[in-house]
Q: What sequence folds into this?
């Protein structure tokens, strides 16, 4: 069994801003439902989708500059509840996150699925570097646009650190997409070199003379880390996924068998201006049912 976990918020943004989107009010929702059906057409059987039901989360209380819905297009914001309803109507298991974020839901679901002996592989479908911290063992990360799947070695090749050190890396260099800056002077290369050597913030020697990782400007970087250590810990807290986010209890709940109410889904597709999605879902559901073991 393979489990596919999808970042619904990422997909909604991707389709809203796609060059071919000609409907700012419905196009992104249609795109998301379509890409999930394509995932099933490509062979996925167990699919879970995490979304940001609201953009703000508990992290906004930790850091005032953390990402928010301010400045987002109204047409895009209006589709958040619509796409959740559409995905559920299509038969997909959806985890709308309120206090947590979609990334937390993906991390929690990956941990749940990886713990099941029946699961051979857990595929997190997003290129988001935050999710690299979940990769390892059964868990891989897929960039569906590029057709690239990476394991732990791929995460290290991309970011310069192993998955366990990804939150520490983001603490030092920041994440502009999430709205926290990291520490002054720390760049991706210096942070990766230090963390490849020591792994975590607490393990970096306080005396820069003890740094044997070939870091230029070690004294200045060390002084910044020591003076801003509590801030670094805060940023790491922000970058660390919460694995207690609310998701399904078992992978059995993720099996896709088609729209629970085909007529209602067909009516929704008409409202979205994409009636062909209903027929596609019906065809795929018949195939999924035929392939299930007795």
A:
């Amino acid at each position: 069994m393979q489990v596919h976990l999808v970042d619904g918020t990422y997909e909604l943004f991707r389709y809203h801003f796609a060059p071919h989107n000609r409907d700012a009010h419905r196009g992104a929702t249609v795109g998301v439902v379509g890409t999930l059906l394509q995932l099933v057409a490509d062979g996925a059987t167990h699919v879970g989708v995490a979304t940001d039901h609201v953009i703000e989360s508990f992290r906004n209380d930790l850091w005032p500059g953390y990402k928010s819905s301010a400045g987002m297009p109204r047409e895009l914001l209006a589709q958040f509840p619509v796409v959740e309803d559409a995905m559920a109507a299509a038969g997909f298991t959806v985890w709308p996150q309120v206090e947590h974020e979609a990334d937390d839901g993906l991390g929690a679901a990956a941990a749940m699925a990886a713990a099941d002996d029946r699961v051979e592989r857990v595929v997190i479908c997003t290129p988001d570097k935050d999710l690299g911290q979940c990769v390892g063992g059964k868990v891989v990360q897929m960039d569906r646009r590029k057709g690239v799947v990476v394991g732990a070695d791929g995460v290290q090749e991309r970011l310069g650190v192993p998955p366990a050190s990804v939150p520490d890396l983001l603490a030092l260099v920041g994440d502009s997409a999430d709205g926290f800056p990291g520490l002054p002077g720390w760049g991706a290369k210096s942070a990766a070199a230090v963390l490849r050597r020591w792994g975590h913030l607490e393990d970096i020697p306080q005396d820069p003379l003890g740094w044997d990782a070939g870091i230029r400007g070690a004294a200045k970087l060390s002084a910044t880390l020591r003076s801003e250590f509590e801030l670094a810990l805060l940023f790491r807290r922000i970058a660390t996924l919460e694995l207690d986010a609310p998701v399904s209890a078992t992978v059995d709940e993720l099996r896709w068998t088609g729209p629970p109410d085909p007529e209602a889904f067909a009516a929704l597709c008409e409202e979205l201006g994409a009636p062909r999605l209903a027929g596609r879902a019906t065809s795929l559901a018949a195939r999924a049912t035929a392939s299930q073991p007795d």
